[in-house]
Amino acid sequence: MTALTMPARPDHDAGLRPVPWRRMAWVTWRQHRAALAGVAALLGALAVYLWLTGLQIHHAYATDCHPTSSLACTINFTGRYATTGNVVSIFLQAVPALIGAFTGAPVLARELETGTFRYAWTQGIGRWRWTLGKLVPLAVAVAAAAGAFSMLYSWYNQPFFAAGYVIPFATRMFGLRGVAFAAWTLAAFAIGALAGMLIRRTVPAIAATLAAYAGLALAAALYLREHYITPLLTSNPNLPGSAWITSQWYTNGGKYAFPARGTQIVNALSQLCPGTSNVSPAQCLSQHGYTQWTSYQPGSRFWPFQWIEGGWLLALSVLLIAATVWLVRRRAA
Amino acid sequence: MNVIEASGLGKRYGSTWALRECSLAIPAGHVAALVGPNGAGKTTLLNLAVGLAEPTAGGVTVLGGVPPGSPAALDGIAFVAQDTPVYKNLSAADMLHLTRNLNRRLDQDYAEARLAELRIPLNRKAGKLSGGQRAQLALTVALARRPRLLVLDEPVAMLDPVARHDFMATVLAAAADDGVSVVLSSHVLAELERVADYLILLSRGRVQVAGEVDDLLASHRVLTGPAAEAGRYADRPVVHVRRGAAQAHLLVRATADDPVPPGWEAHPVGLEELALAYLREPGAAALPGPARGRNTQPSEVTR
Question: At B30, is the secondary structure helix, strand, or coil?
Fold first, then answer.
């Protein structure tokens, strides 16, 4: 029961140098180039469309919108392109989720589904280096592509902002501009990678990624975003047009009376100014000693909000990728 | 050096133990066959040895004391898993390129020569290869890594007899020419005699038999005699009794020098027959080391 003499092999013992990271570049490219080509095709097609319609929109704005209140602007710019702009912004909400789900989820799910992880995770590079060496370049690639795309989208949207048609904080636009679009794409990719590791099957992992992304995006837009920075408070009824009003209410004699919307204010108005149609609700309430208060986010906070959203999404993505790598390291086959 | 050494090794999935209290040492320089029925824990043991699974209890080391999954272990062990998974959308050339990038070395010349010999075109996608070719591709890629230990999990289960023969020929050539130690699991007993020179028999998650094939064959005999007398040996170191109408065949622990009882004939045993007998008697054991139980006293048979 003694060992045969093993033929000498180059430095196989102490001081093993790990397989260099750069070797993963070819591996990742070869195995995921189809997914990356899909991302490029999707964003490329959208970019061509945005470029062509964007030129028309810019042209219409430049010729008809000086001033923006002119009838020509209303008819030839807003009237003609506002719907297009809205439809595009709604469609683009799904793009980060699609990119993330279709590039992120298969990275691990396909290996686990087909059994090839038994090959991949027993190679010299080691499984956590293999995982990190795939996830990080792919994450950077999809985020960079999304970032470039959102720059084009910001250009496309410029006339709508210049015309005052939308405020910077518009819910359906905020996630598509600045750094947010790239950050959301990155987060979707990281969610996909983790879902693939947990679910171990490609199609269910993609479905789970889309669902998780939708939940997170809705929660951020409806509940989280307005709390990034404490809103400003004012009793001045003339707010700048770019302000994002987060809530409005009335006080009377320094005490909270009722919110600016709802049955209470309707009842109060019908009691205070019954049957008068020549007095506006605001005038009626101020005549009777009510003060309107508004909490709002000024438009100048757009970039701080972008960085805050980008920041927490980046942190979340790093966390999810770290969790994925950790799971790969400890997973029992 | 032991290529795989386990002590008290156990692995539990949920509430089921796939492998339990497994202690064994597989020395280097062998083609070791891990044999056992389905569910005996063969795949679990191999997954633990290549670092794909973590033990629930006990420990396992490879290549003379290295923990599985460590850089040295990954570098020195090539693993071909059950059903020989390869990326179906990659060509043979891509598989080689992939493997070269994932390892510190790859013997490109060996791999290309081997694939040419097997008539596997380098540019054909793995998904378009036959089952036998795919298995050969996975094996070639593994051997091109120049491992010190080659671990094969049920490599030939899905192959036809010709492909099975060719596959094993490649394994044997690597073992003979390059001194690669091989551990393979199989429930195909027929090939073992030609291939394996070390046998580990696993049953219900425990090691039942472990040893060099020559030693095992030399220490077992088949006794053939009147069926009526077979009962006399029931409490003897008999591994297995096979009764016919008139004659009984007893597999006993005995060497060629041990005397044969009157009216009985002794024959040497084949590896397949020996393995089968132990598989049918999960209570019997033949293990190296200090005497364990009644089966280690072969002289009693002939008393």
Answer: coil
Give residues with Cβ within 8 angstroms of B293, minimum separation 6: B285
Domain holding A158, by residue range, is 23-229+300-330
B51 interface with A at CB cutoff 8 Å: yes
Phi, psi of A13 (to 5 degrees): -110, -120
For an interface test with B, the pick among A11, A123, A330 (most B C-beta atoms closer than 10 Å) comes out as A123
Six-digit token pair at B7? 């002590």
Decide: B190 and B10 in contact? Cβ < 8 Å: no
Give this prediction's pTM: 0.89
d(CA A297, CA A150): 23
How far, in Å, CA of B239 to CA of B258, rounded?
A: 16
Report pLDDT digits (tens) over A255-303: 898 898 888 888 888 888 887 667 788 888 888 889 999 999 999 999 9
Q: What tokens were used for B77?
A: 């062990």
In terms of Cα–Cα distance, which of A2, A9, A12 is closest to B3? A2
Domains of chain B with bracketed CATH? 2-213 (3.40.50.300), 220-282+296-302 (no CATH)
In a domain, A167, yes or no: yes
CB pairs under 8 A between A and B: 110
Q: For residue B37, say if its preceding peptide bond is cis, omega within 30 degrees of 0.
A: no
Which of A15-24, A259-268, B280-289 shows the lowest per-residue confidence on average (mean pLDDT)? B280-289
Give the Cα separation of A54 and A62 in Å (integer): 12
Token pair for B193:
């005699």
Do A177 and A88 fall within a single domain?
yes
* Chain A contact set for B148 (CB, 8 A): 6, 9, 12
Of the partner residues B25, B88, B146, the one whose CB lies closest to the CB of residue A9: B146
Residue A58 forms part of a structural domain: yes
